[in-house]
Amino acid sequence: MRLPTAECHTIDLSADRRTSVVRTVALFVVLAASFMFGALQASALPQQALNSRVVLDLPEGFEPSPLFSGFTNENLGVSYVIFETPHEAYDELISGFTAEGLAKRGITSVERGTLPRTDDHIYIRAQQTSPTGTYEKFFVVFRTADQSVLVSANVPVEIMRNRTITAEDIERVLSSAKTAAHLTVRELYRLGYLGEFKRAGTVIGTSTVYTRDGRFEPERKGQSRPVFMIAPSLDKRPVKEPQAFATKLLTSLTGYRQLKLSTPTEVTIGGLEGISIEATAVDATDENPVNLLQILLPAPGGGYYRLLGITPTSQTLIPEFRRIAQSFELTDARR
Fold first, then answer.
1. Which pLDDT score is estimated for 252?
2. What are phi and psi of 234, to 5 degrees?
3. Which has the higher per-residue pLDDT, 117 or 130?
4. How much is the pTM?
5. How many Cβ atoms from other residues are within 10 Å of residue 316's Cβ?
6. Which terminal residue of the chain has fewer beta carbons within 10 Å of its beta carbon, N or C?
7. Of residues 231, 54, 76, 47, the one with CA closest to residue 154
8. Phi, psi of 93, rounded to the nearest 5 degrees
9. Residue 207: what pLDDT?
10. What percentage of the chain's residues is helix, strand, coil (to nearest 5)?
């Protein structure tokens, strides 16, 4: 079964499980384009992202995002999103950055370039159209003594066209990317009940995956198994039509086909009112039928939390997913 996400320090890079990194990169580039919000100043100061070791030299107007590992300029709709993996994952990480591979994720106009960096790295510029608009995309992948790092810059095309921000501005920031010795940690939510599920880790700092064995990839290649994940939105944009938006999110889920959705229902979890949808589908990776439960919870002050459970139809876990979801609550950091 395709895992929605993975965590850098627990990825198993054995030959049978290498695709975990590539799949995670695929999720990363999709997430980084789907939920961005928005005049750069000449001065730049080093800033470290929350739940990350990465430091970028950023102009005034950028702040660490409370929802993901990275930075945003809400006035411009520009963001930098960060993904970290172990040092040895570098070759697998860059393998996903081909024109063909990116095209499968809706990323086009791919061009390779160079940056004034002295480390091993690749730099790519591209474009992507998402539900929130069309974005210029800038990717740098580099490795340090103990990490491999991907930084994605996402800029609305109109900002580039009127030269409020230029490619040189973005390249200057990406060239400055480095890592600190320690990460900063900020928890946004918690689960009071997990049953047999265990935390497998996080991606982009705040999205969390849970499996029964605490692994991202199954012990046997191709083995179908249930997973549960929580993914905060990448910005604080208000969800104006929760039911329509929840339906759109679920029908756009990559890696699954023949999706059939149930009628959305209203739920209240942790004091948040949201939308619950069940669905059936076929996993495009292993052709196994699956059941899905998605719960969309619009957050106070904008944005949302997406709770998603996926299980082979042979395992009746939707009630268990609901019980896990009902234990969701925000921490003091998000109240």
1. 85
2. -90, 10
3. 117
4. 0.64
5. 10
6. C
7. 76
8. -60, -45
9. 80
10. 20, 40, 40
